[in-house]
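Chain A, query sequence.
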Amino acid sequence: MKILITTDWYSPAINGVVTSVVNLRQELIKEGHDVLVLTLSGTHRTWQEDNVIYIGSLDMSAVYPDARLRLLFSDRWMKKVLDWKPDIVHSQCEFSTFGLAKKISKLMDVPLVHSYHTIYEDYTHYFSPSKKMGKRAARAFTRQICQEADAVIAPTEKTADLLRGYQINSDVTVIPSGLVMERFSHCKKIAKAAWNIPENQTVLLYVGRLAEEKNLDEIFRHLKSWHGRNIVFLIVGDGPYRRTLEEAAKNLPETVAARFTGMVSPYTISSYYSLGDLFVSASQSETQGLTYIEAAATGLPLLCREDKCLEAVIRQGENGWQYRDSDDFLEKLSLFVETDFIRRNEMGICSRQIAEQFDIQQIVPRVVDVYKTAVSRRRGKEGEEIHECRECG
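Chain A, predicted structure.
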């Protein structure tokens, strides 16, 4: 099958969408499919490398950090894509490249499948002075995009329920983003000493963008009331909210040491998980949260803000906890810090077992089934139209 994937984000950018698309593309190719990616270039120039076409674009960081806006996609490049004759178009983003996905789908008369990665209601602070108006605009925008697709893929039931609440008529199928398990289950470990962390101290680990919607300042607020043993809070990643969080770190008690690593290469990120003892997050803006699954695949227990997207990742009390408020967070953290090595190891084994269901090798066949169903339905509709015409004739 020839599969055209469109995405505003792709390597070398680092975020959940990029991880999801790169893993999907690699596994589709392994299974014998022909894959072409349309994404945005980091410059004004359009070029191609390794079956990826990078479209010239403009810097739009003033609107959203690292965002870019597509420039004109010339007839020459469009002809190249159309001559390739994709069987299906799979869009991954709703902005610059979605219009191209829709146009190519229409010109080639092939289905358009769309993966919904971002809950825009949680990002209103980037584009609207009014949260209420922003949420209303986000719902209308999402409904319009998803209605254009023959099928929609949601990574969790949480996201699927949200889309159904928007009264989207397109078929919504829940398929998690896949993970290359071996990268995390056999990662090279980094010694705590490399970050001047005492071997006997518990390390709380956060991995991800440092942005307002990730709600990381909530963890800092909780830790201000920590009176237990000395612990280290290791924050892996970077983003526009880093300076605010660094200020918050100054108010932590002496029993909590915060360390910021800055941006880390996706090729070494698995090793940073090995530094942690307990993965923590307060985000409620995730459609799935790939970092939760990566942490579990590395064998980390988790302590995360209660969220429906975590239902398949955290088994309460077995490989971690979903906490409700500050008191609950501190109670579970205290419980973990006092837990012995054997029990921590059991929790880690449970995390690895849970993460196996997200192995990309199990996920991609389900995505391909969505493709095949969409193609069959498109052909079926064509057959119905021909039949109706003959009846009329």
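The chain is about 40% helix and 20% strand. The radius of gyration is 22 Å.
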